[in-house]
Amino acid sequence: MKLTTVVAGAVLAAGLANTAGAQQNLSDVAGKIKLKKPESGSVVIDQRSVGRMVRSGPAGTAGDVLLDTTTRCADAARSLSDLLAETGSGEVFYDNGWRARVKAAGETFDEAHKELGFAAVPARFEAAYDSAQSGSDEVAAGLEILRQAIAMDRPQFTEAKKTIAAGNGVLDQAMAEMRRVLREENAEQLPPTVDALELSNGIRELCRRRYTEGSDGYDYCVSEQEKAAEAISSRFAFNVGLEESDFNTIRNGCLYEWPDDLVQRNACERRRISSVSQ
Predict the structure, then answer these.
(1) Is 18 domain-assigned?
(2) How many structural domains is the chain composed of?
(3) Is residue 229 domain-shared with residue 150, that is, in the same domain?
(4) Would the pTM count as exceeding 0.70?
């Protein structure tokens, strides 16, 4: 089979997989919208379910948007910690300029905290999201202690410092977990399609680096690379008995490790598929 035909078939198959995946995602989203029927008989939308419904935004996937929202909340919380770090002996507590900055930082945090409460949460991010909300709530509690201290004109903000710092720590852990899940999620995505001419040129460039063009070694190198390309393009999740996400994780991992050498990439995929299938 010619290499161009093989790659064209792979591109078509990837397109079909994308279409099927989009339809499945739509079904998943629809299934996550819950309706509550009150005793009056009218139907209302469960706002908690809407808040956690998976929906993509202009900034990227729902997971990307969630991480961005959490990051803004954490940044606002750190600003509060930085302001409290300025208190030192307590004299700055009475400074009107410092209090004005606390007021502005507090309002920024309030907005971020509220936005986090309405964030869209994909199922696999729920544990990290719950942790982020817990940390954000803790910062909010510390902010309230600080506001009361300012309102009463009493420099009793040690508890506020501890509470906000603890909330910051939980938010940092939540963001680290979100990044881990995002890396895992990205690894499961369909690998990029490859142009047939680009692939052919890449094979010849690899073999020219190893052998003199026109030599037996060069011709053998090209032949082996093209055979590997055919094997890779003919391998799919359904014909190796793996879930799509597991198959894509293997393919993307081997592509990352062997971006140029198709023979090594093919061997990498075969080893890992065999290991997972056992």
Answers:
(1) no
(2) 2
(3) no
(4) no
